[in-house]
Amino acid sequence: MRIAVFSTQSYDREHLGSANAAHGHDLAYLEPRLTIETAVLADGFPAVCCFVNDDLGAAVLIRLARGGVRLIALRCAGFNHVDLVAAGELGLRVARVPQYSPDAIAEHTIGMILTLNRKLHRAYARVRDGNFSLEGLEGFELRGRTAGVVGTGAIGSAVARILRGFGCNVLATDLRQDPGLVSVGVQYAEFDQLLADSDIITLHCPLTDASRHMIGVEAVARMKRGVMLINTSRGALVDTRAVIDGLKSGRIGYLGIDVYEEEENLFFRDLSTGVIRDDVFARLLTFPNVLVTAHQGFFTHNALARIASTTLSNVTAFERGGTLDNEVVAASG
């Protein structure tokens, strides 16, 4: 099947190319992000392969369907950027990669916690400049601290287990409790209690209408003074302006984000020779206690290989008319 692959980077070509040896699809790699302006590039292709920051709103889906697209093959787990109602009305099928490597994102989360706590990023820069002073680099020991994990799916569960290995007291909140986590000492609590009691809060839940800006003005006000907040899930879980106010007041003592609400205009591109026009994001970068990575949590060889394999398997299943196990559809009712 001919597939228009949007938002292509060199690593996409490498891993999709390797995985395609078992499928034999015709892959057309396109560097631009999918938008209403670039949707014309998919004309004549029965399938498009898209990533997290591609625009799959109703207007784009209408344009894709008009050009002959019948399948949206997501090479990511999240699908909040897809208008599933519009897709259903247009007869477009949507398939995703539900789990490719929870450990990759969990380990990146822990890396951010350790980096912020022990100020490794600042220490590295100092030593490179010949500054061997330890002033301002004091951290704390994780053992005995309380860490709050919001969402205990595959990624949150992995994070909770690693934090227990460090000797942290782990609180968790989710709609459903994981008996396996309870058996290793994780305690489930209401969201408000987790906010109030945690020294570290890390987000691992999906983005829905209910969870959008769950970390806002009220949530920040309930947190311990000096709390560490980590988000490696979805950018819009956090109201960035509210978090900036929390940083300014000292309520938030450390912030680590691998995702950002308006990241589609920033991440996965080299903007080092230009000016960042997002004033909110630019303000974040002025704080010495903020660590930002550009949606890097998933980025391991293992994960990329699994993403490519599952993505192309989804296309093959669609082409053969078989069951599309990883299909996502709009919720009924």
Molecular structure report:
The protein has 333 residues and is an alpha/beta fold. It has 2 domains: 2-100 and 300-320, NAD(P)-binding Rossmann-like Domain (Rossmann fold, 3-Layer(aba) Sandwich), CATH 3.40.50; 102-292, Rossmann fold. It is 35% helix and 15% strand. The chain contains 12 helices and 12 strands. A 7-stranded parallel β-sheet has the order 8-7-6-9-10-11-12, sandwiched between helices. It has a 5-stranded parallel β-sheet with strand order 2-1-3-4-5, with helices on both faces. Helix 2 (58-66) packs parallel to helix 3 (84-90). It starts with a strand and ends in a 13-residue tail after the last helix. The model has no long low-confidence stretch (mean pLDDT 96).
Set out the fold topology:
Layout: E1 2-5, H1 10-19, E2 26-29, E3 47-50, H2 58-66, E4 71-74, H3 84-90, E5 93-95, H4 102-118, H5 120-128, E6 146-150, H6 154-165, E7 169-173, H7 179-183, E8 187-188, H8 191-197, E9 200-203, H9 217-222, E10 227-231, H10 240-249, E11 252-257, H11 279-284, E12 290-292, H12 301-320
Parallel strand pairs: 1-2, 1-3, 3-4, 4-5, 6-7, 6-9, 7-8, 9-10, 10-11, 11-12
Helix pairs in contact: 1-12, 2-3, 4-6
